[in-house]
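Write out this protein's structure.
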Amino acid sequence: MVRSLEGKNPNYFEAILQLRDTTDEIKEFIEDELLRDQIPVTKIQKVTNGYDYYISDNNYTKALSRKLQQKFGGEILITSSLHTKKDGKDIYRTTVLFREAPFRKNDPVEYKGEQYKVISMSKEILLQNVKNGKKEHIKYKDMKQIKKA
């Protein structure tokens, strides 16, 4: 799985994809995508509650995180830090955190003491109240308030 760029330092990477609290299904999805698209990965590191993938392409890593969110639902946090300057240009390293939601589409959940059904999970979580049909849009940063019923 670990492949480096030809002509570059074997430890070269532009981004770190951090998978936290995820299933094996998500790890397999990531590895299949990286292999299919032939994206060089410097290393894969197992950490306490997930994995870190050191990837050679910033933009690809961000796009991959959006694919993850659309397919599985979860929180994404993207940060960048100045790594170095090359030919007067700032070079950034990006860290992308993906934390899977503990529930899936169509799951019954509890939110603010009421029963809901998960309608969709894309940029936000869409819940529908089981009793009155009212819909609620929840941001992923607030997903800890939603409990699987």
